[in-house]
Automatic annotation (TrEMBL):
InterPro entries: IalB_sf, Invasion_prot_B
Highest taxon listed in the record's lineage: Bacteria
Protein name as it appears in the record: Invasion protein IalB, involved in pathogenesis
Species the sequence originates in: Falsiroseomonas stagni DSM 19981
Swiss-Prot/TrEMBL keywords: Signal
Signal peptide interval: 1-19
Length: 175
């Protein structure tokens, strides 16, 4: 009886440690740095999500206490080429961001807190691949002028290719 209890106790400790490790959320895993862009992956609801992002290289009229400004493209199981900007301050209600690459403009379709989201992800990818920089103009905080953020596109293609390899459109095609 005592021997059985000791064996069960010895098995319970490692099992509890494994259960605790599984409950801990997985940290993002960097796939690589490609000039101005970083490619990475993380888990959302048990599903792999791949994304690439760049930080603004130049900002004009942003508030002093602003958080990091990032432009991100994400592949989720339910959607690919999801493009968003996080501006580091809350957008005004009904705010709209305009993203330009050269003379081509893309308008956001919605904002949530400090992020604006863009449609036409495939068109944006094509523009990013052929462009030098992306410029985003966003409404400033109340009483402030329009905020302009500039993102270098150097390294975008390599970072995008990295997330495509890690999260292919057809998972069976993954190398």
């Amino acid at each position: 009886m005592l021997r059985t209890a000791l064996i069960l106790a010895a098995l319970a400790v490692p099992l509890a440690a494994v259960a605790q490790q599984r409950a801990t959320p997985a940290q993002p895993q960097r796939l690589g740095t490609h000039q101005s862009w970083i490619a990475a992956t993380h888990q959302e609801n048990g599903q792999k999500v791949c994304y690439a992002f760049a930080r603004a290289s130049r900002s004009e009229n942003g508030p002093a206490n602003r958080q990091t400004v990032t432009l991100t493209i994400t592949h989720r199981p339910g959607g690919r080429d999801q493009v968003a900007i996080s501006v580091g301050y809350p957008y005004p209600r009904q705010g709209e961001a305009v993203l330009s690459v050269g003379t081509t403009e893309f308008r956001s379709y919605g904002v949530v807190q400090s992020s604006a989201f863009f449609q036409n992800g495939q068109s944006l990818v094509s523009a990013f691949r052929g462009g030098r920089e992306a410029v985003v103009r966003s409404p400033g905080p109340p009483g402030r002028p329009t905020v302009t953020d500039t993102f270098p596109l150097a390294g975008f293609s390599a970072a995008y290719d990295a997330i495509n390899r890690e999260c292919p459109a057809n998972p069976a095609a993954r190398r």
